[in-house]
């Protein structure tokens, strides 16, 4: 049985990775247990535990904050990734590193595949791309996995909430919501992504992967689906991202095709609406 260490184990994705890897010997590390920007901390933690696989979900990913705290964004997303790559390489450990659809600029207007050229639009995206390059350069046993629009039951620690819960909360406070209709993405369930990661690490086919739920929608369509499934009746108005005047540039189209998973015959990611239905089923049962 492979032994895994999950970094960021109390985070939104990390919590579901812990569950998905529960049948393996999975050890969770929170920020109290490891500081990925400090190579001595990384070396200490991983030399003690001696895992076969490390899954890194840690990131500095509050997108507007990254524009202000640029050094911190690069420290965590780039230097942290480099430290993990160096230490796992020296100890012969496989490294799963989570990245983002935001590495693309959106101009393609068709699903991005792993061989498409990134062109980040923000500090967050550039720091994540730097992390990808450093992992690829320093770890010969890496899986870099890009995903999109994550939501899960554990609170996203960097943002304090997720889009589903934000919409539900706002629907209790307002009579009408305005939601961006010209940013197209694939909302992705952290449960589905975590289960997909478990399949990826079995392959030993190291490299770059796209892993999102299938299909695509705008944030507006996502919001409509949330209210439909939750049985909430509220007026939702579509607005353009220009009207919304967000402080940071985001790709208007960041749909990923899971081509590498498909070519290995292991694309198990359901359609995005299925992820949302599953989210509400679990929410109701808890
Ligand atoms: N959320 C999205 O929509 C989205 C979309 C695409 C890709 N991603 C990527 O998916 C990954 C997981 O996101 P998430 O939403 O699960 O994040 P999250 O809930 O914020 O969890 C991140 C975890 O990493 C820990 N951490 C942060 N900085 C650390 C450091 N320097 N050293 C050690 N641990 C540290 C956090 O602990 P503390 O909170 O205690 O610091 C937390 O446990 C990230 O790589 C992100 O870039 C996210």
Structural summary, described in words:
This protein is globular. It has one domain (3-159, 187-216, 254-271): NAD(P)-binding Rossmann-like Domain (Rossmann fold, 3-Layer(aba) Sandwich). It has a six-stranded parallel beta sheet, sandwiched between helices. A two-stranded parallel ribbon has the order 6-9. The protein contains eleven helices and twelve strands. The protein is of the alpha/beta class. Bound molecules: NADP nicotinamide-adenine-dinucleotide phosphate. Residues 7-8, 10-14, 30-31, 34-37, 57-59, 61, 76, 80, 98, 100, 128, 147-150, 156-158 line the site of NADP nicotinamide-adenine-dinucleotide phosphate.
Summarize the structure.
With 286 residues, the protein is an alpha/beta fold. The protein is 44% helix and 17% strand.
Write the layout of secondary structure elements.
Blueprint: E1 3-7, H1 12-20, E2 25-29, H2 39-49, E3 53-56, H3 63-68, H4 70-91, E4 94-100, H5 123-138, E5 142-147, E6 150-151, H6 163-173, E7 176-180, E8 184-185, E9 188-189, H7 190-203, E10 207-210, E11 217-218, H8 219-230, E12 235-239, H9 241-244, H10 259-264, H11 272-285
Parallel strand pairs: 1-2, 1-3, 3-4, 4-5, 5-10, 6-9, 7-12
Antiparallel strand pairs: 8-11
Helix pairs in contact: 1-7, 2-4, 4-5, 6-8, 8-11
Residues 7-8, 10-14, 30-31, 34-37, 57-59, 61, 76, 80, 98, 100, 128, 147-150, 156-158 line the site of NADP nicotinamide-adenine-dinucleotide phosphate.
């Amino acid at each position: 049985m492979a032994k895994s260490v999950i970094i960021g184990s109390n985070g939104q994705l990390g919590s579901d990775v812990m569950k998905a890897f529960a049948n393996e010997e999975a050890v969770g590390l929170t920020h109290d247990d490891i500081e990925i920007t400090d190579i001595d901390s990384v070396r200490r933690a991983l030399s003690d535990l001696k895992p076969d696989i490390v899954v890194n979900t840690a990131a500095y990913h509050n997108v507007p904050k990254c524009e202000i705290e640029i050094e911190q964004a690069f420290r965590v997303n780039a230097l942290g990734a480099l430290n993990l790559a160096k230490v796992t390489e020296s100890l012969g450990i496989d490294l799963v590193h989570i990245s983002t659809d935001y590495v693309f600029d959106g101009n393609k207007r068709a699903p991005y595949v792993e061989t498409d050229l990134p062109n980040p639009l923000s500090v967050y995206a550039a720091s994540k791309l730097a992390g990808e390059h450093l992992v690829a350069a320093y770890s010969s046993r890496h899986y870099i996995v890009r995903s999109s629009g994550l939501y899960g039951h554990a609170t996203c620690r960097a943002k304090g909430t997720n889009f589903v819960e934000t919409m539900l909360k706002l629907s209790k406070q307002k009579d009408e919501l305005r939601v961006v209709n010209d940013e197209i993405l694939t909302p992705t369930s952290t449960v589905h992504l975590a289960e997909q990661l478990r399949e990826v690490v079995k392959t030993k086919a190291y490299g770059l992967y796209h892993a999102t739920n299938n299909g695509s929608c705008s944030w507006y369509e996502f919001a409509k689906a949330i209210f439909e499934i939750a049985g909430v009746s509220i007026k939702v108005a579509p607005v353009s991202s220009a009207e919304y005047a967000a402080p940071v540039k985001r790709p208007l189209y960041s749909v990923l095709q899971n081509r590498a998973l498909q070519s290995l015959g292991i694309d198990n990611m359901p359609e995005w609406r299925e992820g949302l239905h599953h989210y509400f089923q679990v929410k109701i049962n808890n």
